[in-house]
Amino acid sequence: MQKRTPRRVSIFFERLNRKLRIYGWVRVIFSAVQQIRLKMKRHGKNLQFIDAFGIVSLGLAGLSPSHAQTLAADPTSENSEQISADFDANLKTLEATTPTSASALPESGLFYSAKHANWPPFPANVLGLDAWPLDTNVFVLDDLSFSTAGRSRIGGGVKADDDSGPPSPLVGGGSGSYTNSIGDSGATPIDPQGLWLQITGMTNPVANLVIHPGTTNSDNATYDLLYCTNLASPISWQWVARTLPGQTNINVTNATDPQGFYRASLYNDFTANDSLGTDFWVGLPSFNNAVSFSLYISSPLGATGTVAIPELGITNAFLVAARGVTNIGISSDAMMDYNVVETNGIHVTASQSVSVYAVDYSYGASTAFTCYPTPLLGTNYCIMAHDGSGIGNSEFAIVATTDDTTVTCTPSLTAGFDSIVTNLQQGENFQIGPSSSDDVTGSWITSDKPLAVFAGAQLTHVPDAYDFGNPVIQEQLPVNNWGTQALALSFAGRANGDTYRVLAAYSNTVVTITGTFDTTNGDGNFTGTTNSVWVVTNEAGQFNDVLMEGPVEFQGSQPIQVAHFANGTAWDNLPGEEGDPCEILLPPVGCYLETNTVFTLTYNPTNNAFSSNYISLIIAQSATNNTYVDGTNKITNFEMIGSSGYYGSQFFVTNSGTHTVTSSQPVGVEVYGWGFVDAYGYFGGVVK
Asked: Are 360 and 292 in contact, with CB atoms under 8 Å apart?
């Protein structure tokens, strides 16, 4: 005997069907139990969709969003007042039954609001409420008594006093995904008068989108555009672009995926999650000479701003074009001294999100590192550095971002300094540099407020016995931003492999390294290679150095940090003595951006400086056919990296200056170059 659908459920869907039609949903397919299909409504050539997050979908049929206004004048719509009365009456039947608790509900599905039947369904239980199940993955939220007072809107960022992270449509992992529940952060659904997003055209490979601020947002607001290819849990939202104030039209290039979803949100929705930002504190540690120290600033959509050293009375304004790079020279007076508190912090502020890279372009002793915005900083650091090889000091430097910051420095067994506790005001800094035989790697820096931390060596050999020396400095990532897997390719343009250092944050960390290991003789000279898997157990703050070439995969049972070092000139003795040590800190797998605006240093024919520049790329297998440098250079010749599911390729840069790396998936980008006994290197964009 066929089971009949309860009359109360049928009525609910009938009324909801009508409400949804009025508010612009033009295709909703209900479950087989209900056997209800809404009539598709075509507007122009495209089917039109929107959901409560301002998410719009772009599929094989050229799908795009619409809004309540699209169907408000539809003469076939039933009387809305009568619908509301019928709808409210039938909801009382549902209320008489017990809803399923929120903890027992799936992460994804169709979650309709009982309180607001005119809202399209959420793709998840974003409010963390109990709900009545109507069919497989179809629910009605028990939100009739849910109060929205004092709560922020979806897409409007988090409250100023909320440090739990930006809102998310789903709790999930993966690169670039948000990790906290909207229900936890106190967000409520968008209303019909709020922010919504529309795709107005699609010409392969460009998607044309329009942001409609609604009545609840400023006409001069700034928005982030996020993207993913699948709404199945966990969702991995990737940052695509940030608008200028008041900008509402966005053209997205490289829109070649067969299915994609865009999300618009106020700009602070993503500020705390990647290496782009509007506020940075940078330190100038002690280099060998710091002859020409600069900050290179790039922006996806253009920005203005200042670079200031308040204590030195220095303020420099900058203007950077969309997908351009500008550089601001920094006075050598900002370089830190050892073992003294100073106020040499460099403060970068910008009108729109920018990336900041620090470069000391000094003949025979250059270096570079990626700078991180203040929201990405932390209070708990385990230092990755290097010894001074008898020619320089192992060192770390700290810059306070907030007044009255208490800092504790706990030395590792190899560090050569005593424990330190000090108090710093905003912009104050200090630097520790023990003797050249010491190594501050594994030392801990903790504080009660976020710090910017820089570490490495003033000058060093890599490996220790091989000329020539270079400074190696990197801004550190807090331990909570470490991961358990890192990937790399050997540096292009060098021979006989590279040096990697793997650092464990916690005791009993099992590290597995897979790849091709270099073999050496008793004098440490290169003799060949062997394919192997090496497993070692590290204690907190303990590190291991390995020589490897080709693709390499690092896996830890607990969080690890991996540093990629180029070896000294004497290691491979290339013609023209090109190359020297440089260092790049590798972020965890998948913590990459889809679009990176980077730069390579200008060739100087006088001293043969940086005649060779490269970009190494690491991406998921699905993006190997959709990754480009500068829009037209399609990256090929990918090779598999262990069993990670990721692939790597190396690209020789024929012209120095600004370059843009884009991909349909997050792409890891190492940028580096070789000159006469010289080198530099840094990592592109990082996602928390």
From this structure: yes
Residue 510 CB partners (closer than 8 Å, separation 6+): 535, 536, 537, 556, 557
Are 121 and 42 contacting, i.e. CB atoms less than 8 angstroms apart? no
Bridge partners of 543, per DSSP, are 503
**What's the confidence (pLDDT) of residue 492?**
95
| Neighbour-count burial of 351, counting CB atoms closer than 10 A to its CB (0-12 exposed, 13-18 middle, 19+ buried) | middle
| Contacts of residue 562, Cβ cutoff 8 Å, sequence gap at least 6 | 486, 488, 500, 501, 502, 503, 554, 585, 586
Report the C-alpha gap between 565 and 384 in whole angstroms.
12
Structure tokens belonging to residue 666:
């997050």
Beta bridge partners of 357: 296, 370
Q: Which helix (H) or strand (E) covers residue 399, if one does?
A: strand 394-400
Asked if residue 432 has pLDDT above 50, the reply is yes
CB 137 within 8 A of CB 106: yes
SS3 391: coil
The pLDDT of residue 59 is above 60: no
Q: Report helix, strand or coil for 354.
A: strand
To which H or E segment does residue 14 belong? helix 7-22
SS (H, E, C) 498-554: EEEEEEECCCCEEEEEEEEEEEECCCCCEEEEEEEEEEEEECCCCEEEEEEEEEEEE
Q: What distance in Å separates the CA atoms of residue 472 and residue 478, rounded to the nearest whole number?
A: 19
pLDDT bin (cut points 50, 70, 90) of residue 487 is: very high
CB of 244 closer than 8 Å to CB of 267: no
Structure tokens, 650? 């190396």
pLDDT digits (tens, 9 = 90+) for 511-527: 999 999 987 766 667 77
Contacts of 605 (CB under 8 A, 6+ apart): none
Return the pLDDT at 54.
39
pTM of the model: 0.65
- 170-189 residue pLDDT tens: 222 222 222 222 223 333 33
427 within 8 A of 342, measured Cβ to Cβ? no
Q: Given the DSSP bridges, would you call strands 324-329 and 277-282 parallel, antiparallel or unpaired?
A: unpaired
Q: Give the pLDDT score at 61.
A: 25
Cα angle 34, 40, 46; round to 5: 145
Q: Is the pLDDT of residue 191 over 80?
A: no
- Describe the chain by its helix, strand, coil percentages, rounded to 5: 10, 45, 45
Contacts (Cβ under 8 Å, ≥6 apart) of 98:
none
pLDDT, tens digit (0-9, with 9 covering 90-100), for 322-362: 888 999 999 988 999 999 999 999 999 999 889 999 999 88
